[in-house]
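Issue 218. Parser rejects a valid record. Input:
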Amino acid sequence: MAEAGAAASGGWTPARSVAGGRNPWAILSVISIATFMTTLDSSIANVALDHIAGSTGSSYDEATWVLTTFLVAQAAITPISGWLADVVGRKRYYMFSVFLFTFASFLCGISQDLTVLIMARILQGIGGGGLAPVEQSMLVDTFPPAKRSLAFAAYGVVVVAGPTIGPTLGGWLTDNFDWHWVFLINIPVGVLSLILVHLFVDEPKALVEQRKKLTKAGLKFDFGGFGLAALFLGALEITLDRGQRLDWFSSPVIQITSVVCVLSLCAFIPWELTRKDPVVKIRLFFQRNFAVASLLLMVVGLLIFGTTQFIPQLLQQVLGYTATDAGLALTAGGAAIMIMMPVAGILGNKVDPRLLIAFSLIVQSFALWNMSHLDTQISFAAAAKARMIQAVGLPFMFVPITAVAYVGLKPEESNQASALMNVMRNLGGSIGISMVQTLTAQRQQFHQARYVETLNPLNPSYVNGLNQISQTLQANGQPSAFAPQQALSQIYGKLTQQAAMLSYIDAFHVLMLITLGCLPLLLLMQGPGKTKPPAGAGH
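Output the parser choked on:
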């Protein structure tokens, strides 16, 4: 009966709290330190790739494996992190993950060879992939449902702040010091996290007893499930991350990873459904709220990670912003998120979460529609404002989705549920980045081809414009023999810029339609107090 009550109350029982007799808000601050470190690292290295390539004597394309291998390792470990936390002990596994991430950051920071750097990034991904799921399960077990929205709001500030600050901080460190400091900066943060977690985070007796029962029953590791999950997610990450660079299915590498991805997924689902002790409990997706919340979290990942990479790229490549100014435009949005997160947390306990999510989706759609009206003459203020409008709505999606997903689950399922939700969010981010990169590249080619068709002597506008620019150049001292060629170059440069801008506008439209398409999903989500405990929860 106790389990049934806990399931009905959102999977919470005080016996599983990691706070002990301490203030749970202080515990949230402690575990958020590692969260900030790992989310920061997800984007901080992006701006340093040119410097890494030059320093290690490799090409830019080879240097991008620094990003890809991190994502692949993180994707492989995240789905089984819940199982590992159950078996090893949640606090012990968490501290090991922090240590591994910190040690790998040190290895990255002293690397002089690209191969060594990539191997260190793999270790970083393995360490980082286990942190977020464990942190979320700690929050679920420490805060009762009435306070959970506020807790996830505070946690959400850290989750969103890392990727937002990362590009700006990474650019500043690389420009003013050296790219090695992009990784070395993690060391003091990781050491501080280890000390505070050791001192203040408890391992509840309920979890100790649960681990003893698991091991006493002769627990067996599901090597087949782990292998298939790692193959599926790893191959998918490589396909999404490298697809556009390798021209998708014209590349043998992408053909192979796509086949591996599909086959491993087709084998993984029936395998896990028929295991007595699956390493990944995909049956959790049979819970309606959890399934819908997971799909919506994919959209959250798509919007956060997709636009975090997408918008600075637009500002730098099309509008000529510096890396620092592009990062500052994102930072304005980060400030808006930090302001609105507490509001979302307070409203999460008073308003139907489905209404908050609907509000967020509408705001996101409006923000993306507004971005689709940007042009090549926009000011920094306009760019920052466009990002801030989008940022205002994000907390009202992240907080209620995360809080409502655990309703109806058993307390002992929180580790597995957190792991799967993080997989879905990261998967959405990878899909969003890949989709945006592919869409902009293809649409830029389309628009450029259409524009080039108009550059011919039969077009009077083109002829007049070419003559006017040539005359202006000659008036400014350009020799008459070279003026027409320089004029043509200027026209083509403007044409390329306009084509690129139109491709980003197309991408904004697609993201807007995807966001609006999520609204019907809310009809499938059960409201507060209507979710039934899982079958057999009382046994």
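Fixed in the parser; the record now loads. Residues 33 and 193 are 6 Å apart (CA to CA).
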